[in-house]
Amino acid sequence: GWLGRRVATALTQGMPELGAVGKGGASLCCLVPAGEDASALRGLGAAVTAGGVNDPEALDMLMRGGEGGTAIHLAGVIHPPGRTEWFGRVNVEGTRQVLEAAIRNGI
User: How much is the pTM?
Assistant: First the structure.
């Protein structure tokens, strides 16, 4: 989404207005929903893994080899019309899955 692209740009290319956070030069591995266009992230040099926050295998693939790194979780559902189950599945369960994968992979 918009926020993820901005954060990825700040971390890789830099955004001076963000101070130390926006110094750039970081390498990124990003989880992108299957079928979503990830060309902008690839253009920033990011390694892209297709999958979702509720897919432990995709999360492990994403985080494998990242020992000592930092995980930034930006996925979320804001206004799921009539879909409170989806809200919980992504925002609550998905966050738990991301944290568990980070722990499993030493991040």
Answer: 0.86
